[in-house]
Structures are given as structure tokens and as C-alpha cells.
Amino acid sequence: MNIQQPSPTIGLNCHALSDKLNQFAKTEGIRQWDLGAACSNDSSVQVDRGEAKQMKGSQRSSITVRVWNDQGLIGITSTSDLTDAGLGKALRLARQASDFGNPSDVPAFSPQAKAPLPDLHRPLRPSQGIKRLLEMLKQAEADLLGRHPSILTVPYNGLAEASYEQIYLNSEGALRQMKRTQASIYLYARAEENGRKPRSGGAVRLALGSQDLDLSGCIQEAADCTISHLDYKPIQTGNYLVCFTPDAILDLLGAFSSMVNARAVLDGVSLSQRESLGSTIAVPFLTLHDNGLHPSHIGASAFDGEGTPTRKLCLIDGGRLESFLHSEATARAFGVAPTGHAGLGAKVSVGPDWFEVSTTEGASSGSNLHHQKTKEPFVLIEGLNALHAGVKASQGSFSLPFDGWLVNQGEKISIEAATVAGDIRTLLNSIIHIEPDSVIRPGGISPHVWVEGLSITGEA
Amino acid sequence: MREGRIGFLNKPPHKPYIFRFASIHGFKQLLSDNFSHNQPILQEKALIATYTPDQTPALESESFNGDWEGQLESLLARGRSAGADLIEIFLEQTDHLGVLAEQDAITSVNPSFGRGAGIRVFLGERDGFVSTNDVSKAGLDKALEEALAMLGLQVNGAINSSFEGLKTLQDFAIEKRNWFKNCPELQEASEHLLNGTSLLEQYGKHLQVRRGSYARDWQEVLVAASDGTFGRDIRLHQSVGLNVLAADGDHRSSIGRRYGTSNKPDDLRQWNAEASAREVCESAGIMLYADYVDAGQMPAVLANRFGGVIFHEACGHLLETTQIERCTTPFADKINESIAHEAVTAIDEGLTDEAFGSVSMDDEGMESQRTVLIENGVLKRFISDRAGELRTGHPRTGSGRRQGHTFAAASRMRNTYIAAGPHTPEALIESIDHGLYCKSMGGGSVGPTGQFNFSVEEGYLINNGKLTKPVKGATLIGEAKEVMPRISMCANDLELAAGFCGSVSGSIFVTVGQPHIKVDSITVGGR
């Protein structure tokens, strides 16, 4: 039986996969199982000063199978080996691992694993092929290099297109399947002027297909960003009025998403507790949604790892903590419905899809601060670095290097090297303004967000 | 056992970074410090279950071994006939086990296994790379054709090339075939972890979360290239760690230590859980009430072991030929020139005994070697792989490494450390009036302009040559060219620590290390 279809694009034969699993499960005496499978086919190119540097292609497939044993305990195994031998071994290992299942926390099938899926309009875009990708990236690199004499190289660049398929199946007949395509380009330029330190800047764009990528926007943003960092100065250490760009605030909120994560709450590692729901955790004009269905979310999926439909969820409304992100197991523990934010595991992980930051309807900060118009001095944080090291999510603290500018009377001077530090709870209550215009970014949608009194360390 | 720590990755992969441990979860990523939940009772069943693990990661017939010679030679010959300068085939199979204990129960067991191939074709200085999970003859044929097509080449029917066949297999795996079955079985691993979390309870105060985790990664690789390279190896990496979250009112501290080795099946059995638990609990207790560090420029002493992250980020990555290729290193033309203080000698070693970053051969089939990078402050050598040698002229150093078959190899660090110096650690601290002692470091990263950063997990202020109060929340930043000449004193207590390093060819096992070192001045980010 052919599990991987001999297709030039992608394809898991989900019915064959289901039949095969049922057959193996019957042989092993397994009555309850589920499975998540994914496969992808992608191509990517990198260039270096007009020449192809590396071209890559890959075909990947993987499955994760879970089984429940006669005691109702769960075991799991993952593999990229989709041969009969591989599938049989995966089921056998999952069965063995179930002997060590945790009786205090047994995931079940999502009650919504067969519920209707949302209409997610994501047309599949045809591949343009690696030669076309190479032409496009060479042109983009040349264009960026031509934007300023100080831009000498684009050391980190890439253009990729990929097709994906994702499946969820279970022994009660749930069958989810989704195909999608995605393309991305990133350009990070390096510029150097005589006697000065090298500076860098970049941009990223995503689209459903490589023909839809906003190349000119990406080039323009990378050039503007790089050029804006050429004139730099160290900054004096102190407390500053700070404006976070949409990318920066989305990154920061993502790093502290354990605050709205039911798994983390149950595990005791979140800053929130069960009883935090309904409490005020931010200024009254801040609202935060997780919206995996947003039309601009290129990587959207109609269902999560447990087959639960994806949906828009209000997390913070008017500064009030409204709800947590859930899997089936955490939702059961809280007595609510799963929210479509689960992975697939023996202990199921939970995570956000795509954040939407906005001003609460009918509320206002009363401020008219604007990152392009405000005259008083402030620090504009373009991007935060090293979140993997500088964020202590369970403590609420962060101390992060950043790229940005000191803006005074409309003049932007790049900051040579600096860190910003604080506590997320304090920060959420120190927001003094959210600009009216939302910006769509690869990681979510947000306006510029203003915070007062943040501690910045510089080298001046 | 070496030290390591848990972290997670959520930044685009364009900047090299290091962190002590990573975990990727199914479809979504757990964003909760990788801690987990309260399970109040010992899971008795876990200890009495009869577990008969499938201790055959690959049947002999499925092994990637010398039996593949004919098929690989055929592929390589066809690639050369098509006009490629060089073809390299990387075959891999893996077997992973992850076990998590929370409080007094095993809460997650995650086995996984897989097979795959990566085929890389060079033409001039360009290369095309294709990876696939399909290692059937048809799958490999297709991958080769696609890799050739990327460079405008096409397989033709005739075998007509200068390819002279593979050399005799260099089999580094012969003595390692029993490694896998000599590792602890799941039940034994569980017992060790539960003992660890029990010891945390015994030694810790205000502990809200106690966690132990174990990971075993077994990998068999076979590398064949049209220059005759034919090598096989088995790698075994194991790591075990303890983490706690302590909380008392508004005070919180999360502390973890992870220890890892390579090529040592008995690793977990020899783990000193008692010492680990004491160390973690002591640190958590101290940091629970620590003040945030005051920001500023100051001298710093960085402890040995994971303190080596400063060299890894500030200099190590910039000595990889991938950085020369991208024009992102300030050291490209500095061979035989002074780039660091004369107190600094730095080494990248392929085969340090049991260290996490050790490999008998690299992922391009080259036998490991020891590379002196900097000698008494003078740059001696770059870390180079096959493509690095081709594109920059720096000879290969056995440093072509990759996370797995889905990545093309790149020049990467292995066991990289600053050599011991003549001083005692106390002498370094005594030489400072006011500064920071960084006892335990977190992860870090370096950007395309050479600016690096790393976080300090456990720090102490130095006043008048003595350690005083504990401080937290420090992030150290700087620029490679400026900080290397400021490493002015090296102590005599070199030790190594395990970590994961992420960069162009994925996340790989590495070792960092150093003795205690003194940096004359560095920017300490804080509040």
C-alpha cells in the first residue's frame, strides 16, 4: 500500500494511512489511537554578490502516533520512516511507551475533532521552480546593493517556496487534512562606512506563493532599515520613553505567552493562575486576541494538533484577562472547550497562533504620541534580540539587546548597542499609548505601542 | 558529566546562537520555560512496568554500512558523468528518547526515529543540496537528479567519468555497535530522574516546580563522496538535567543545570544526582531574593565551564569560514595577527574525551583533529569545512557539521575552549575594585556585525576584590574585536560544559569551556 503518493508535488494518502494504522492496531490489539502526519516539499536559494551560493530542496514527511493501552494510559512515538516497517515499529514503540503513561493527565480525543472546520481561504499557489527563485533573488540582491554605496553585501538572504500537507486521524473516524503553500524571502544587508563600525538591517516577507511575494517592499524596508543605522551613537544608560514597533511588541508578547497558556498555568510556571481570569493585568485600552484565522496569517491551519478547529480567541479585553489558550486536556481541567491551540503529544503542548494587538473598542489612552511625529525624545525599538536567553517567562523579567533609534525632534539616530530590561507585568501596566494604525507583520498584527520608564543600558 | 541548561528558540535562524538545551514539540512550540505541571504522587506503575524497548534501532540489514558501497558508487559515478565537480552523499538514521519527570511522576516519554539522505553537488563554487526521507534506490536517484538539475546538470545514460571509486571504508562505528543497547532502558532512566526530583524536594526550599529530564540521541551516519571519501560513524549523546522554579511571594527564580556527554552509554548511571540537586537548590535559594543588577560598564569575571559562551559568541562563530564567505567576520585577513590579549589561547577540538561536541569524523567524512585557533592572542587558523576550503582557501579542519540529513554541512565549532592560564580564580576577583562575577551563564547570540550578547543566570557583585551580594537579570553585550583584547587574565581551572549551537546547518551538540577569565570592561545590561 502506498502511503506516500508518487506525486511530483506533495501528498500523503490519508485513507491508505488510516487503513494501514487500523490494520497494525488490530494486530497489536490496540483499540484507540490517533495520528498526526505532515509532509512538505520545499526549494530554497541563497545568493552571494550576483552568484548562486546554495540551492536546496527537500522532501520531508513525519508522523506522530499515539496509542491508549488497556489501562487507558497513553504512549507516543514519532518517525520520518513511513515504510510499513517504520509504521509498525512506531505503533509498537508507542504501545510500549504507554506503560509509562501518566495516569494523572491522560489526553483524550478532542470533542471537536469531527466538528466542521472554518473556511480558510488559502488557495494553493503553483511552484515557480528553483531557477525562477534564483533569478528573483539575484535581482533582489542587486537592487538592494544598489540602494546605497555603503551596502556592500547581503550576507543573510534566502528565497524559498514550499508546499505542505497536514493530517490528523483517529480511531473514531476523525479525518482532517489540509494542504497549503507558502513562500518567504529575507534580506539582511551589511553596510560599512569608512572608519565606522559595520551596521546591518533587514526585512522578511511571506506569501502564499513566490509569485505573490512583495519583493520591492522587502528590498525597500531592508534598505531603509540598514541605511537608518549607518549614523549611530551610543546611548546614555537611563530610563526612557519607549515606542515598540509592531515586530518588537509581538516578539515580546510571544515570549511571555505563558501568561495566557493554560498548560503553563496548570504546570505552575505561568505568571497567571486559574483565578487570574477576570483580573486586570494591563492598561484598560489594551486588547489582545489570538487569531490563527486572520486572512494575513500566511501559515494558518484550519485545525490544531488534536484536530480541534482553529478560532479567534480574545485573551485580554480592556486590560482584563479573558481566557487562556487550551488543548483538550487543559480545557477539560478548566471545564471549558478546547480552543484549537494544541500540539500532539503524551503531554500536549499549547501555544499561540498569531497575535492581534489593538486598542480596546471605545477606550482611548488620551495620548497622541506617534512614532513619526512626536517631538519629545524617545527610544524606538525596532527589534529585540536573544529572546531565548534574555527572557525569564516564569519570572516575568527580561533583559534584551535591541536594535533601534533614539528619536529627538524627529531626528532618528541609530543606537550603537544597548539592552532594554524590565518586567512584563509592569510593562503591560506602563503602556501609555497604542497608535491607531495596525501593521501586519509575519508574526501578527499590531500598532506601535508606547511604554514609559523602561530601563535602557548603553555604552555612552 | 558536563553542564547544560534548558531554553527555547523563537528567533529567525539568521543569527548564530547558543543555548543549553532545546525542545521542539509536535506542531506547536511550548512557550512556558519548558517547565511542567504538578503531579503529586509517585507514578508507581512507571517503576514496575515491564518495558521491553525495541533495542534494535536498525536491523543489520537496515544499517548504513559498507554494503551500500555499490549503490553509492553508482550514484557518485552518475553525478560525475553529468558534469558535477564533486558529489557527496550523507545517509543517516536516528533514534531519540526523551523522558520528563515532574514533581514525583514521569509525565512524558517521547521516542522517535527516522532515516534520510542528503545529497550535495558542487560545480565550481556553487552547490545544490537535496534531502529526502526516501532512501530507496528510486528516492536517492530522484534526489541526485534534482540536485544536479539545480546546477543545470542532467544525468546521462553513460557512466563516463574520472570517478575512481570509493576508498576503503573508514569505519569508526565498529567498536560502537553495542552502545545503544548498553544505554539505560526506560525504566532505569525513569528511576534516575525520579531520584533527582526527589532530591530536589529534599534540598530545596519554596520549590513550586521540580523537574528532571533525560535525552538520548543515537545516530548512525555513512558519508560517501566522489573524491573517494567513505566513512561511517555512530554517535551517542545523552544529557540529563534538573530544573526548579522557586517562588516566595513576589520573588521567583528559575534555575536549571543540564549535564551531557557523548559516546558514554553509562552516562546516566554515573550521574551524580545528589550533587546536581544540591547545586540547583543552592542557586535557586540564593537567586530567589537577589536584586536586579545595576547597569553599566564594568570589569567582569566569568566562571569556568559555561562561561565559555563568551568565546563561543564573541569570537568562535567569527572564525568559521562561513563567516568569511559572508564577509561578516572582522578577522578574515588577520591570520598571524594579534586579535586577542596575549593571555588568550583558544582551541577547537574534535575529540575531547566524552565531551558533548566530540565526533570521530565530521559530517563530511573527515577524521577529527585538534585545531589551535588563537595562540597567545595571535590568530592561527579558521574552522573550515569542504565548502569553506573551496570558497576561502582555508584548509578543512574536520569541522563540517550538520544537525541531520536535511541540512548541508557547514563549518561549525565542536569542543571549543580557552586554555588554562597561570592564575588562581581568586586572583582574578581580587584584582577588581567594583565589577560583576558571572557564576552561571545562560544562552547568547552573535549578529552579522560581530555584536554578541549572552545572559547571566547567577551573578554576584565584586566590591574591593571580594564577592558580595547576588544579582540577577544581567545581559552582557559587546563587539568581538573590542572584547577579545580585554580578556586579560585566565585562571588555572579549565572546565568544559555542554550546549546546543544553532546556525546555518541547524542545531548541533557542542562544548564550550574556559577557566575563570577576567574581562577588563564590558557592558552589563540591567535595570
Q: From the helix content, strand content and strand pairing of chain B, which structural class follows?
A: alpha+beta
Number of separate domains of chain B: 2
Gyration radius of chain A, in Å: 24 Å
Superfamily at the CATH H level of the largest domain in chain B? PmbA/TldD superfamily
Unreliable residue runs of chain A: 4-10
The percent range for strand residues of chain B is 35-45%
**Strand adjacency order, main sheet of chain A:** 3-2-1-4-5-6
Tally of helical runs of chain B: 11
Distance between the termini of chain B: 35 Å
- Elements of chain A, N to C (H/E): HEEEHHEEEHEEHHEEEHEEHEEEEHEEEE
Share of helical residues of chain B: 10-25%
Number of domains of chain A: 2
Largest sheet of chain A: 6 strands, antiparallel
Strand content of chain A: 35-45%
Mean pLDDT of chain A: 94
Shape of chain A: globular
Folded structure, characterized:
The complex is a heterodimer of chains A (460) and B (527). With 460 residues, chain A is of the alpha+beta class. Chain A is built from nine helices and 21 strands. In chain A, strand 5 (175-191) and strand 6 form a beta hairpin. In chain A, helix 1 (14-28) crosses helix 2 and helix 3 (130-145) runs parallel beside helix 4 (215-228). Residues 4-10 of chain A have low confidence and may be disordered. In chain B, 19% of the residues lie in helices and 37% in strands. Chain B contains eleven helices and 24 strands. In chain B, helix 5 (186-203) crosses helix 6 (273-288). Classes of the chains: A alpha+beta (460), B alpha+beta (527). Chains A and B meet through strand 1, strand 2, strand 3, helix 2 and strand 4 of A and strand 2, strand 3, strand 4, helix 3 and strand 8 of B.
